[in-house]
Amino acid sequence: MSYSETFIQAAGAWFLNSGIQADSGGVARFYRSDAGKYARVSTEITGYTVSTLLFVYERTQQTAYLDAALRAARFLTRKAWDADLGTFPFEHSSNGDAGPALAYFFDCGIIVRGLLGAWRISREAEFREAAIAGGRSMLADFRATNAIHPILALPEKRPVEYEPRWSASPGCYQLKSALAWRELFEATGDTAFLRAYESLVETALENEQGFLPGETNLERVMDRLHPYIYFLEGLTPLLDRSDCVEVFRNGLVRAGKFLAEIAPLFVRSDVYAQLLRARLYGESIAGIPLDVRAAEHEAGQVSSFQVASDDPRMAGGFWFGRKANQATPFVNPVSTAFCVQALALWHDRGNSSLEARRHSLI
């Protein structure tokens, strides 16, 4: 078994065997190793996991991954979707331990993309219909005149007052979630979805420069690199536009600079992985020259976050981050998803077999 197959199989086994996916099909936000506990099931993380398991299935052709992906997708359509409210609340509880009643624009887009992926591979109409309903609720509920409200309070769908932290304010990062609108247009031909995506593109291009650093605290700047690269990911359908290519190219440089400066203090595995993926997509789609030395370093760093353990709750997953060379105690589904995809794509490039397929970007 090659190195590429080894880390993919190990990460896939973590999703299947760790308990991170509940019997319901929903997926917990993380496993906390120091406390031996799972966080609550998250609809967003379940959406990410659908996309991840489909990616691993495509790489391995092992039906256990497809089965787990479709089980997660059915959780989203049959349990997570609130038909009365017409939205996906951000966390789900089966034991009464529920979080605040909120819906996030970003989460809904990730869920819609996961459901579209499940529909493309299974052709089950349930997934397409739920994705369309979710996309329409994003159009109707979150858009204001000059911004996208990031959070709504349920059940009234009242916009939550903005806060300084990035996830509680509008910003260029929301373009990653708006990829759902672009993909819904491709699936349905409904131009309302395309217009909404294109409108957010223009807004994001106007304000992306101010997103970084956005903080004076370096650890918080590291946290902002994660959503900033979401913005770059949201541009991938437009890397045939010279202005978008230039922004993308400059964004890679800016993100790489901040990452290198802050990493000795605090670093997130997903940021390494996202930046490596973005470099590879930029080279493959738009011919942006790859900084090979930086990419090699990022691939090595990503690999270092995979957990080697006899504990199945941790083995094969990826740590969220490191502070002063000490791993933080979170084995994280999104970190695992981004890291395994980044390493797989890096391996493909080394074999001259890279296919930077936009719909497959987790």
Offer a quick outline of the entry.
This protein has 362 residues and is mainly α.
Could you give the order of strands across the largest sheet?
A: 1-4-5
Number of strands: 12
Give me the CATH architecture, please.
Answer: Alpha/alpha barrel
CATH topology: Glycosyltransferase
Low-confidence stretches: none
- Terminus-to-terminus distance: 25 Å
| Assembly state of the chains shown | single chain
- Biggest pleated sheet: 3 strands, antiparallel
Radius of gyration: 19 Å
Note the total helix count: 12
| Highest-level CATH class | Mainly Alpha
Number of domains: 1
Q: What would the principal axes of the Cα set say about the shape?
A: globular
Mean pLDDT: 95
Protein structure class:
mainly alpha
Helical fraction: 55-70%
Percentage beta strand: 5-15%
SSE pattern: HEEEEHHEEHHEEHHHHEHHEEEH
Observed structural traits:
362 residues; mainly alpha; three-stranded antiparallel beta sheet; 12 helices; globular
Lay out the secondary structure.
Blueprint: H1 3-17, E1 27-28, E2 31-32, E3 37-38, E4 41-42, H2 43-60, H3 63-80, E5 91-92, E6 102-104, H4 105-122, H5 125-141, E7 151-153, E8 158-159, H6 174-188, H7 191-207, H8 218-234, H9 242-262, E9 266-268, H10 269-286, H11 292-303, E10 321-323, E11 326-327, E12 330-331, H12 333-350
